[in-house]
Amino acid sequence: MSGGAGIVYVGCYTGQSGGRGTGIVAARRDPGSGWLDVLGVVAETPSPSFLARHPRLPVLYAVNELPDGTVSAWTVHPDGALTPLGVRSTGGADPCHLAVDPGGEFLYAANYGSGSVAVLPLDPTGAPGDRADLAAHDGRGPVPDRQDGPHAHMVSPDPDGGGLFAVDLGTDSLYRYQREPDGRLRATDRFPTRPGTGPRHLARHPDGRRCYLAGELDASVTAYDVDGAGRLVERGRVGASRRSGHVQPSEIAVGPDGRFLYLANRGVGTVAVFALDAAAPRWLAEVSGVGDWPRHLALLGGHLYVADERADTVAVFPVDPDTGLPAAPPARVPVPSPTCVLGDQP
Fold first, then answer.
1. Exposed / middle / buried, residue 55 (Cβ in 10 Å: 0-12, 13-18, 19+)
2. Which of 100, 215, 248, 257 suits 242 as a labelling partner, its CA being 20 to 30 A distant?
3. Residue 84 bridge partners (DSSP)
């Protein structure tokens, strides 16, 4: 992937979502210390709450988390600057996540407010076109104020590009789709979670045979095996935190070598670290110093970056490669209402 080497992009909530940001912030990452040298706002766009990169082209994408949802695309330049490439409707409300299929031909977006998944074709420049499909979910869960209807929270394409999972917080379900050549989605399965789980995000293991689900509403982590047809088999379930107080998990990620799992816990303001040497994740430690509302985390070049939406900071931890644990207190980089950290390497 060319363009923007060493540049980290941070999506920020803007005034439309009660945030203090004005768009996407770029920062240059020091590979030794992990420090982010903030370059400034490189795209003024409403509430770019989640970001993604094209797998081959120098193109950056963002969802605009608005009542009439959109996705925006930019060409990425080597100095981190962005040139607008296009804006398209997601056909739904409050899109909060997006992903590009590994072949770079389609963009998927999760419409949280309306509980649907949008598919947009990408042209040879990486620009999104009009929707090829909009798959709507149905149902509800037992938590009235959060599960009154479907709320798609994440889309996770298969590594081979043939299908995807859609994670729906409102219906306590993971939906399985196959994508047809024209971009239309064919529903093939639906995997219910335990009632009241409120599934938020799914992290895939590098071996392709395991994945881990963050339960936002019941503060859980569920481990699954994934078979060759994309079917899920639950293998274990653990609590998201050992701290007392309100626990609301957000982002979940598997380290590049597949040995450790990282989970951001809002409310108690921690990152929990688990070993992945058994059927269920094994709790190792829980670190503070990230503020009370860590919305997103990312592992980049031996450092852990944690975006605290309410504290207006991105915390940077060095990670011990042997233990998987943060090795020192974090440095804090000021960024207004950060919601997503995206680098150019795992």
1. middle
2. 257
3. 74
* The predicted structure's pLDDT at residue 344: 74
Distance CA 337, CA 309 (A): 4
Closest to 61 (Cα-Cα) out of 69, 50, 45: 50
pLDDT in tens, 96-138: 999 999 999 999 999 999 999 999 999 999 999 999 999 999 9
Mean pLDDT estimate for the chain: 96
Confirm if 34 and 315 have CB atoms less than 8 A apart. Answer: no
Q: Which two tokens stand for residue 138?
A: 């149905």
The tens digit of pLDDT for each residue in 298-320 reads: 999 999 999 999 999 999 999 99
Sign of CA dihedral 99, 226, 146, 10: negative
Q: Name the residue among 220, 260, 262 with its Cα closest to residue 242.
A: 220
pTM over 0.70: yes
Indicate the DSSP class of residue 283: E
Long-range contacts of range 155-160, CB-CB < 8 Å, 24 or more positions apart? 155/97, 155/98, 155/99, 155/108, 155/109, 155/110, 155/117, 156/99, 156/202, 156/204, 156/211, 157/99, 157/100, 157/101, 157/102, 157/108, 158/102, 158/230, 159/102, 159/204, 159/208, 160/102
Q: Structurally, what CATH architecture does the domain formed by 47-192 represent? A: 7 Propeller (2.130)
Cβ-contact 274, 221 below 8 angstroms: yes
Render 289-317 in DSSP notation, one character per residue: -S-S-EEEEEEETTEEEEEETTTTEEEEE
Cβ(286)–Cβ(331) below 8 Å: no
